[in-house]
């Protein structure tokens, strides 16, 4: 097997601001190259993702770190075409949910710990606090990222789906979630359509996200440089659009939340009041 070209991958990820690495142990890392090659896949071939694939992917997810090893997350595998269609039409999910052969719904889950406490005659008062909600969502996110990396290692493509938080009660009902559990997001999985041209999407220059010892606020020239890098990448995909405009639209006002401004009330209705 030929060694991965890590520096070439870094150039794709960062463009002009790419770091250049020289350590042979780093340059020969297949695992690093896999991570650097990540791209979201939104167009899937008509080929099956087997139960063994999902077993392996779930094992990778469960191998991730988890706060106090409480494992306060769950995953619900959805394959049924009608259910996937309803998740799009009723729960506000992305159309990608209907297109992918498998969708994994990652769940922030305090229902399991609450059940265990209940079996032992104890309440589950601490599950109602914001810290617990955060832990459930953080654990779900960490597990999901290991699932995504495992899927990519197997040659599969994935895309995260945050849209299922738009109507969280509907997604929860559709997969029978108990009180104390909420869908954090979905991950659609399938074999990448060979005709899909999506590539390695540039990221902010590393100095924009990485500080030493003390946090360094963003520099405007780094953002402007990134705007140019992303525009050049988007042009290769036949897309226009400005990253700066997107970020501003996201933070400017409540419209940037795309209907998910109801998150606190929705979580409370799911039995996660986040006190
Ligand atoms: C929590 C989360 C939710 C996301 N939701 C969606 C989504 O609903 N639809 C979509 O097309 N992409 C979604 N994405 C994918 C991002 O748009 C994508 O990761 C980002 O544009 C960077 O592109 P890349 O993954 O190809 O590098 C989501 C990603 C994350 C982490």
UniProtKB/TrEMBL annotation:
The keyword NADP applies. The keyword Transcription does not apply. It comes from the Bacteria. InterPro entries: Flavin_OxRdtase_Frp, Nitroreductase, Nitroreductase-like. Pfam families: Nitroreductase. PANTHER family: OXYGEN-INSENSITIVE NADPH NITROREDUCTASE. Belongs to the flavin oxidoreductase frp family. Keywords: Flavoprotein, FMN, NADP, Oxidoreductase. This is NADPH-dependent oxidoreductase. It comes from Microbacterium gilvum. Residues 37-191 form the Nitroreductase domain.
